Amino acid sequence: MNCLEFRREKLADPRWLSAEALAHLEHCAPCHAFAHSVDESEARLAEMLRVPVPDGLAERVILRRKNGFSFTPRRRALVATILLTVGTGALYWKALPAPDYARLAIEHVIDEPESFTTTRNADPALLRKVLHDFGGELTAPLGQLRYLRLCTVPGGMAWHIVFETDHGLATLLLILARDMKASGSAAEMAGWHAIAQPVGKGCYAIVTDSPESLDAVSRMVRQRIVWRA
């Protein structure tokens, strides 16, 4: 098992690993760090979901009747389930911190390794349209376009773009983000490096395999894409 296979398996089911994955984990330090990071995220999520429900909430709501509506036992059970689910979900989302889009971008790149080995929608005209709709104008090429795809990410959608540059392959994600921090973010995980900056209709994130290439590609993006206010 290689590193990409291990990370995909870990993300698919963080609580269970195959014998092959466990064997890989024993001698791969980057994947060990990645697994630890995923486990920490799962633990934080589990802690957030431990929201106590006020005593008697479901009973008080269920026992109320409005406009002569009568609750059968089956209806009571259904309404109780809906109320408890919605109530817990609302408390969970209220407690959930704003996403770390730099880290999210690395996780997405790891989960989509085919973006580095396949060519998809490599049309510069399509890229210009995507950027324009997102709030940016390309003034000069970023490199050889290899991959362009609309993907699902936590909380919304993102355009996943891969370029071949003088500094190696680089990923640019255009994320439709509703709660991007004004100061942006940076992350390093499993040998990948990323930054995220608020622009246009959300934010962009850049992912590369070294700090040096990240600096170079980030500088190129700032110089060659003009973002509308």
TrEMBL record:
InterPro entries: DUF3379
Originating species: Undibacterium arcticum
Protein name (database record): DUF3379 family protein
Highest rank taxon of the organism: Bacteria
Pfam families (UniProt xref): DUF3379
